[in-house]
Amino acid sequence: MKIISVANQWHQICSHNPCARFTDVILRSYGQVMLQNNALSGLIFLLGVLMGGYLSDKPAIGAASLVAVISANIMAYVYQLNEKAWQQGIYGFNACLTGIALATFCENSPYLWCTIVLASILSVFITKALSTILQQWYLPCLTMPFILITWIYLLAIPSFSALSRVQADTATAHITSFTLLHLLPSSILGIAEVFLFNSTLVGITFLIALAVNSLRITLYAITGSILAIGIALMYGGQLELITLGLYSFNAVLTAITLITFSNSPDSKTNLYILLAIILTVFTQSALTTLLKPYALPVLTMPFVVVSWLWLLINQTLNQR
Amino acid sequence: MKIISVANQWHQICSHNPCARFTDVILRSYGQVMLQNNALSGLIFLLGVLMGGYLSDKPAIGAASLVAVISANIMAYVYQLNEKAWQQGIYGFNACLTGIALATFCENSPYLWCTIVLASILSVFITKALSTILQQWYLPCLTMPFILITWIYLLAIPSFSALSRVQADTATAHITSFTLLHLLPSSILGIAEVFLFNSTLVGITFLIALAVNSLRITLYAITGSILAIGIALMYGGQLELITLGLYSFNAVLTAITLITFSNSPDSKTNLYILLAIILTVFTQSALTTLLKPYALPVLTMPFVVVSWLWLLINQTLNQR
Amino acid sequence: MKIISVANQWHQICSHNPCARFTDVILRSYGQVMLQNNALSGLIFLLGVLMGGYLSDKPAIGAASLVAVISANIMAYVYQLNEKAWQQGIYGFNACLTGIALATFCENSPYLWCTIVLASILSVFITKALSTILQQWYLPCLTMPFILITWIYLLAIPSFSALSRVQADTATAHITSFTLLHLLPSSILGIAEVFLFNSTLVGITFLIALAVNSLRITLYAITGSILAIGIALMYGGQLELITLGLYSFNAVLTAITLITFSNSPDSKTNLYILLAIILTVFTQSALTTLLKPYALPVLTMPFVVVSWLWLLINQTLNQR
């Protein structure tokens, strides 16, 4: 109850104060990374991101995400692309991920920060353009603009001496078996990896951010993560990747997205979400093979492709 | 006449007996691989597939195709995606090809069969989703779901120790010249290669399956195959590939599809189909180069791309 | 005034004489490469192309472009795809570029000329098909058919002994610094590179061709070229490529296209075109990395992708 009364107060402040309204949009932009149109969730996600940057010895990541989200939302406001979408943080969440990804994969330099601002602004326009294409089928952009702009910048690095890629960390300790004890930490890492972090503490923070808005979605997120681990284990996936949650983060997003757009989670819907998670895991492995020659991360592409396909079917299933 | 009366009897049985109706759908799923909505054609295709598996010392292929078609059609029935399309075998033919391809390219193991069932079920959902996208332009899915799901699984193999790729057969005897004597057998092999088989007998069986439904389509199929060989020979394509019908199978499908959707085969239509066949041959060579680093087969992708483009034009030509 | 009266006379001749009308379409096809629906512009472009072929010791290029444009327009006339589009040269400009590209990248041989005719005819059908898809979003094809058909033929070369790729020229003299003196010549080379030429004289001819139709577009073209050079310099791009205008030609086309489709060039529009040019430069570098393993030129793909995205946004901006 207390949370609700605080939320109401915040709502009232926002309606009067343009500064508070802009802060609200910034926070919702963080929330929308996991489809939560909720400022409190967003605030906790933001804390998680700051913590994640700090814990991975890259505090620049948190600042990068903030710079990105602010640049994107200012630009979207100036061009008045879509008032309602802007208020819900729709023009900010791709910039948030782009900022984090560029700060994670590129060496820190003044050029990097210039690139982050540019990429964030461009992500706003790409979001608008893709929305126009996708509205034909009532589909949301999801994180496609983030994937496109990040891939473009990472692929452009060899052409430009001002940008350079961070040397990949050496892999963590070799793992010879996966026991039930690994299951929960790995699933939570899968949640953290949505924002490209590798920390259980951050994963738990993100789960709290989800739980603040919806317990059902939290449940589906963690179940999606566990299922992806199970599928990868069954087919003999690499234990290092499974333990780090790298098979899970796309499945988490698929699960959240499909349950958000479903009317009622009956057994047919659950089976249909399970199939989507299975396809997400295999699409991720396939994309990994495709992108290997370019040393390109798959990011959240498997989630986007599978969710688009499944949302198209969902429309038919819900029509009846 | 006798065939027609048998067909009528079968029709009557199907309207009463759900088991017969399901068998009818299974057979039509086989027929739809070459766009024939005809249970008898389907039955002959099924016999050809069983024979092809047997002749290539891989009897599992026939079983794989049956398992795939049955899984797919059960799933499509449970989710009641589109009653009419289901009855015509539209939800089964991609699974049929997926089953054959996975059994051809992967080592036999319990995981393979689990994968075939999964891939077939997923192909149903992908078919439904792609149909929703493509109906905007009145385009059919063709074999796109089969191509996508097969590529995803083949590309995923390096990530999973439970799946492994069959070692490619060493090429057949070296051929130094192509004479008129090679023309007919090679064209017939082109028909067999639609189902990934390399046997003239199987090719003849498939031609009979076509002829049962339409002589005109049979004529266009074999002509498409011959033309593809002619174009490849003219441009100096590899004789081994030409002789095996590997330049033909996509052209065969393009020819069948375009004549099926054309109103009247006048000379303008024939020229327009010829151009499509030429583009199919070059698209196939281009895709071969693109996919070589990934050791990925082109499957029927050239046919799908060219047919979609040409069907879009066809709508305009027929409008007048 | 004199030009206008000559234009009127030409208009009158065209309405009576089918031969003149066809010539008009041929010339407009050249003009449409840079979006100029103007026969006089087209004539100057044609002269530039002939000159460019001559200056680069490849006179076949000029002939190839003519053969291509004529073949394409005859085919479009025979199939009566779209009367109005045909008259404006819409079915010819992709063929024009395809002819130039194939004559530039492939060894001269009778097969090459056969391929140029075929590719040009196919480009007409691809133009028609893509238009049908894109009209859903009121988007033009731009040079997509040219890119697709040229890539297909270049990728198909390894499969066919009748076609072979020209050995790439060794790079020009090594450049150690870029001064203001380089800026104008390099920007003009960027204009010439739209038609794949590397000559300042040809670039100036093309600028005149633009100026005949619209001074504003000429200004945006050269500004786009200069901006692309600036961005590439700022990020430390390779000086050789920058000096040759290879970072500019896509930006030139983006600038021309976006200003053509904009209502009023206010500061918001100019910023939005600047962002498009920035994205064009980075997309070009990204595509270069992607296509390197296949030794495939990026052609005008970055321009097409960015222009499509930005034109989609433009519709929203102009609606208000």
From TrEMBL, chains A, B, C:
Taxonomy, superkingdom: Bacteria
Transmembrane segments: 38-55, 61-79, 86-104, 110-130, 137-156, 188-210, 217-235, 241-259, 271-288, 294-313
Membrane recorded as keyword: yes
GO MF annotation, one: urea transmembrane transporter activity
Record's subcellular location: Cell membrane
Protein name as annotated: Urea transporter
Organism listed in the record: Snodgrassella alvi
Family assignment from sequence similarity: Belongs to the urea transporter family.
Lineage of source species: Bacteria, Pseudomonadati, Pseudomonadota, Betaproteobacteria, Neisseriales
Residues of the site described as Important for channel permeability: 300
Entries under PANTHER family matching the protein: UREA TRANSPORTER
One Pfam family, short name: UT
GO CC annotation terms, alphabetical: plasma membrane
Xref: Gene3D superfamilies: Ammonium transporter AmtB like domains
Membrane topology, record value: Multi-pass membrane protein
Coiled coil: none
Keywords per UniProt: Cell membrane, Membrane, Transmembrane, Transmembrane helix
Principal subcellular localization: membrane
